[in-house]
Inverse folding.
């Protein structure tokens, strides 16, 4: 799942993963866990994120490589928050080349900048588990924890994150765009409608990947 911060890709990834019995792998969740444990590398990453910067490629690649090597990913997985750069995308291709089943399907959740600023200004997360809150919630639905405003959801930081995303991550779309497994969905809709588009896009991309595989073998 690709898309700018606040596009809703985490929510869509979580729902798709639950519906299809796949693990959702979020680098953000891994970093938050490291921050709770006061790990130096995770704390350095937090400083960068609070300034609206991206965490360096090598750190993210190492985290993802280790996670995708676990047993629960053998039948598939949903990646949320990775890759963010062409360098990371190439590294992911290398990781996927070592796997013997399935194709990499890329979903870009598209949302305009002003809509992202509006959304993130109102967003709350759980201080205990890091889950994004649903609109109108007073406590976390997952663990009952206290909801707080993220330090990196300030309007100035949001716009800086969007600028960084456009500059450093958007070229990744050009890297993937020509593939039969690339698809884009309109994220500026109600979550239910976005999910329907995500399902349809992934199913279409999977069929395209199967046709491409048969053609390559022929």
């Amino acid at each position: 799942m690709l898309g700018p911060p606040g596009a809703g890709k985490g929510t869509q990834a979580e729902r798709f993963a639950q519906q299809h019995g796949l693990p959702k792998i979020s680098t953000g969740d891994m970093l938050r866990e490291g921050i709770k444990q006061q790990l130096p590398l995770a704390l350095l990453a937090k400083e960068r994120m609070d300034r609206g910067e991206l965490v360096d490629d090598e750190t993210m690649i190492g985290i993802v490589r280790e996670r995708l090597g676990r047993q629960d990913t053998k039948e598939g997985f949903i990646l949320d928050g990775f890759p963010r750069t062409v360098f990371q995308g190439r590294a992911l291709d290398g990781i996927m080349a070592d796997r013997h089943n399935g194709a990499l399907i890329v979903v870009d959740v598209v949302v305009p900048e002003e809509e992202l600023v509006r959304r993130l200004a109102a967003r709350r997360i759980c201080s205990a588990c890091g889950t994004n809150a649903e609109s109108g919630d007073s406590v976390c639905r997952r663990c009952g924890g206290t909801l707080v405003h993220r330090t990196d959801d300030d309007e100035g930081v949001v716009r800086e994150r969007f600028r960084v995303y456009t500059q450093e991550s958007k070229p990744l779309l050009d890297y993937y765009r020509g593939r039969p497994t690339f698809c884009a969905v309109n994220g500026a809709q109600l979550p239910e409608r976005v999910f329907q588009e995500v399902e349809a896009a992934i199913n279409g991309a999977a069929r395209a990947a199967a046709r491409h595989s048969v053609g390559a073998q022929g």
User: Anything to note?
Assistant: The chain has one domain: 9-193. The radius of gyration is 17 Å. The chain is about 55% helix and 10% strand. The longest strand covers residues 106-110.
